[in-house]
Amino acid sequence: MVFSSHIFIFYFLPLVLFIYYLLRYSWRNPFLLVASYIFYGWTNPWFVLLMFTTTLINYVCGNIIDAAEGEPAKRYRALVFSLAASLGLLGFFKYANFLQANLNFLLDTTGAPLIPALEVILPAGISFYTFHCISYTVDIYRNEAKPVKRLADFACFVALYPQLIAGPIIRYHTIAEQLRSRAHSVEKFASGTALFILGFAKKVLIANEIGKAATAAFDAEAPTALDAWFGVTAYAFQIYFDFSAYSDMAVGLGRMIGFEFMKNFDAPYRSESITEFWRRWHISLSTFLRDYLYVPLGGNRHGPRRTYINLMIVMLLGGLWHGASWTFVAWGAFHGALLAWERWMGKESMYARLPRPVRIGMTFVLVLFSWVLFRSDTFGDAGRYFAAMFGALPFASGAPLLAAFLYTPANIAMMMLCAVLVLNPVQAHDWVERITLPRVILLLLIFTYALATMFVQSFNPFLYFQF
Known about the structure:
Elements: H1 6-22, H2 25-40, H3 46-67, H4 72-110, H5 126-141, H6 151-159, H7 172-180, H8 186-219, H9 225-256, H10 274-280, H11 283-294, H12 304-322, H13 326-344, H14 356-375, H15 379-389, H16 399-406, H17 409-423, H18 428-431, H19 437-456
Helix pairs in contact: 1-2, 2-6, 3-4, 3-5, 3-6, 4-5, 6-7, 8-9, 8-17, 8-19, 9-14, 9-15, 11-12, 12-13, 13-14, 14-15
């Protein structure tokens, strides 16, 4: 089930909210757990069993870690087991096909018999709820939080439907108290509703529409340089408005039931360096990797060379977390190399002395290069697209048709709107802090138009569902 569907908006959400507020407080978390399992298992109920298995393992290990205070060896063994089990399940379901394909490639080059392929289906959201489980046992091990008493409460945290499929990544110690007791108010519900509507509009009215131009350019046999730059810019806007839309909707839905999740985006395309970009883009992932991987690796405490290595390791694994493909690894390596370079420069970019608009523009161009790797299925596809961006592909007979599709008044207007919105320092989270009558009227008009548009669009799930 997806947020931008009539089933969710007209049936699931109203019914869940109605029952939630009828229940006594002690029954609300168990009810949210059931509702979240229905939400997650809507298309494939078997995936619920996998999530519950990961949940149960970490719940038990968390209790063992807490009960073994004063027994460091026992605490450590429980932590290692929980991490191995969680990452093992994630590794199998997310990377089994990737490993099989690469192993068979190596066997084929040596003439050895190939291994029969085992087709493993990737469960939606497994990367996100695995990180939620990891944060639970690690936070308890670090004495940053106490375990929940009821399994239903912990399972509710893992499966909570607003942030289950594509985040933001919620760390247990930031939400532990809210699982036990959280405030509900009309003001909080209203701001959550407004944030959901804005996220819904960003997804349906902007991301889905500009994504058509990106798809056309990336699927073209030989786009011109202008077409290629137009297409990758469209993709940069698509992935931002698509993913930030989901995050806004998730935070808004959380507020409707009393939870407060972290802000996941902060105008990332206004960044003046790659270091700043990662403080603004997918904030929940970058802070998770910093606190649960970069710092345990040593961070910047063991000299510059070790710092650069740690940055590369974190970004390589961050790239692999996004998907089982060498292009994702290359995407992570690209960002890791830039982060290491800027750290060597004193956390400043190579163009730090240039005017601010130029710094923003150059950072955006570097991000565009990385999006080519992120969007491409293979290095061959990425190489062809890079060649197109620099005018190195021969002219194709279909180029005029592609241009006619890309440079319509609607697409150009949408690109201009995207540019204005991404450069605006006022974000959706800021806009909903004060709900006035004119804003309510505007939100109703936007929501009505977005709903009407949703019904005429083909099915288009959120991009981060695949991760």
